[in-house]
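Session log. Operator J.P. requested a structure for one protein chain; no other inputs attached. Running the standard single-chain path with token output.
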Amino acid sequence: MHHVAARSIAGERIFKDAGDYTTAIGILARVVADGLVVCHAFCFMPTHYHLYGTFPDVSKAIHTLNRRYAVSFNRRYGRRGHVFDSPFSRKPVEHEWQARRLARYIALNPADPEGWSYASYPGLIGTRPAFSFVDPAPILESFGSIGNFRDFVDEGRRAEDVNPVPGFARQPGSS
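Structure written below.
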């Protein structure tokens, strides 16, 4: 299992509207369907994204995801060139405490975690429809229940340091 984070070049918005987010989610669903990742949690933000998953080959999966999205984004906006800064960040998740903290960090990335449509957390806790391609089993096994995970996330709102990835600060807003 790994935590992968990718950000845009020079802090540019790579998800400008609901259509961009929907496209990215669809591409992630296809990458999952292609067997390149088992997605446990994700969050797409205006300038970056986070993905917690089990990967047979992390580089191949993220290259495919980023390439497919960049082609779509460039076509939609009549632009050329790179969309994502390189390289992406990846960190193995080797301990349960890392997995727990990571799941909370991804959930807390948007300012409104329960209402952010472009992340897996609202679907897991039932405030929005769940994404069928997300397999939250490691999260649920770690916490024992959705309620316990939600409590842990709520505790994280009061914590000073929930960021497991230096350089990827929590987004101040969700737009």
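Operator note: The first helix runs from residue 18 to 33.
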